[in-house]
Specification:
Its cofactor is pyridoxal 5'-phosphate. This is Acetylornithine aminotransferase. The protein has 382 residues and is of the alpha/beta class. It has two domains: 101 residues, Aspartate Aminotransferase, domain 1, CATH 3.90.1150; 238 residues, Aspartate Aminotransferase, domain 2 (3-Layer(aba) Sandwich), CATH 3.40.640.10. Helices cover 37% and strands 16% of the residues. It contains twelve helices and 14 strands. Helix 8 links the parallel strand 7 and strand 8. The longest helix has 22 residues. The protein is globular, with a radius of gyration of 21 Å.
Length: 382
């Protein structure tokens, strides 16, 4: 049967990967600066990852959440240690959308309210409440639109205050660095005032760290650049280096009850093994330090490219904004120079989301290629 045709695809077929490179079915090598939407955190085919997943699938790949699974607690303990989110509780799921769905459900359970406040250009997933809180009407079906969501301008604290004081908002959900929307960020003052307003109005503050979490921003979580304490933190993407896994971190003042949340596949043995290998590698290879060092180096190199009008983001969650739409540039990079990059809702933005163990030599290689590609694109436009 045919596949349901919803993805516009590049004519490239990856068959293997190693580190920051992937290889197609013709043997060509590509520099991967996108990591499949920021999913590849510790590099393709990392030996720690291969060993952990192989050993676990040879032992026990799956059983449901009806039995003891010590790997879940091991993962939770390592996550608490590395993230610094002391006392938070972990609920494991399979994806970012599922994480945000459960975060919103948890907020509604806790507050007994149902309206959600989200922000322009935000992206939180494609399922029920998560997609309703996403600022893209093209992917919101009528069944999703029945959710009670108010979408506000980022940094409009007066609007947030007005909405929360109506006393019907269960959650404010925010990306501290917007992903799909184009790497925009709120101000420190805004985020900290939103946090205070949530606490004053019995509203859960949800940090969507699905893309920005796990060290990508230069801190373990992007919210840690600010003086805020989220009630719920959603995680996924880089969490499993390609294995489907997600979760929510739940503040200790929220009490669990049997049956409140549930999942068949979430937190399975194989997913936990993959997740642990990522955390152990982030720790053993000092990847947060590398993110900051290489991210700073990347930004400095980008400043030397006159066609780049703005550099956005933090760490290795970066965007290069031009004064033209980048669709043709991305095609030039992937087809003629073998470099994967990302796009955004902002059509003039090139997104850079490489594995966290990228090296400066790869950055040099990219900018050498980018200069050549930009010259060709400019000549084509003329």
């Amino acid at each position: 049967m045919p596949l349901f045709d919803v993805y516009p695809l590049y004519d490239v077929t990856p068959v293997s990967g190693k580190g920051i490179h992937i290889y197609d079915d013709k043997g060509a090598e590509y520099l991967d600066l996108y990591g499949g939407h920021a999913v590849i955190s510790i590099g393709h085919a990392h030996p720690n990852y291969i060993k952990a997943v192989t050993e676990q699938v040879n032992a026990l790949g799956f059983y449901s959440n009806a039995i003891q699974n010590p790997l879940q607690q091991e993962l939770a303990s390592k996550l608490e240690q590395l993230s610094g989110c002391d006392g938070y509780q972990l609920f494991l799921v399979n994806s970012g959308a599922e994480a945000n769905e459960n975060a919103l459900k948890m907020a509604s359970f806790k507050t007994r309210k149902k309206r959600v406040v989200a922000f322009k250009k935000g992206f939180h997933g494609r399922t029920s409440a998560a997609v309703a809180a996403t600022d893209n009407p093209n992917i919101v079906a009528p069944i999703n639109a029945q959710q009670d969501v108010t979408i506000l301008e980022l940094n409009d604290i007066d609007a947030v205050k007005t909405e929360l004081e109506r006393d019907d908002v269960c959650a404010v959900i925010v990306e501290f660095i917007q992903g799909v929307g184009g790497l925009d960020q709120g101000t420190a003052e805004f985020f900290e005032q939103v946090d205070a307003l949530c606490k004053a109005n019995n509203t859960m503050f949800i940090a969507d760290e699905v893309q920005s979490g796990y060290g990508r921003s230069g801190k373990f979580f992007a919210f840690q650049y600010y003086n805020v304490t989220p009630d719920i933190i959603s995680i996924a993407k880089g969490m499993g280096n390609g294995f489907p896994i997600g979760g929510i971190l739940i503040h200790p003042n929220i009490e669990a009850q049997y049956g409140m949340l549930g999942t068949t596949f979430g937190g399975n043995h194989l997913a936990c093994a993959a997740g642990l290998s990522v955390l152990n590698t982030i720790e053993s290879e000092n990847l947060l330090e590398n993110v900051n060092e290489v991210g700073t180096y990347f930004v400095e190199k980008a400043k030397d490219i006159p066609q780049i009008k703005k550099i956005k983001g933090r760490g290795l969650m970066l965007g290069l904004e031009f004064d033209f739409e980048v669709g043709a540039l991305r095609k030039e990079l992937i087809y003629n120079h073998k470099v994967f990059t990302g796009g955004a809702a902002n059509k003039k933005l090139l997104r850079i989301l490489p594995p966290l163990n990228i090296e400066k030599v790869h950055v040099d290689e990219f900018f050498d290629i980018l200069n050549v590609a930009l010259k060709k694109i400019t000549e084509t436009v003329k």
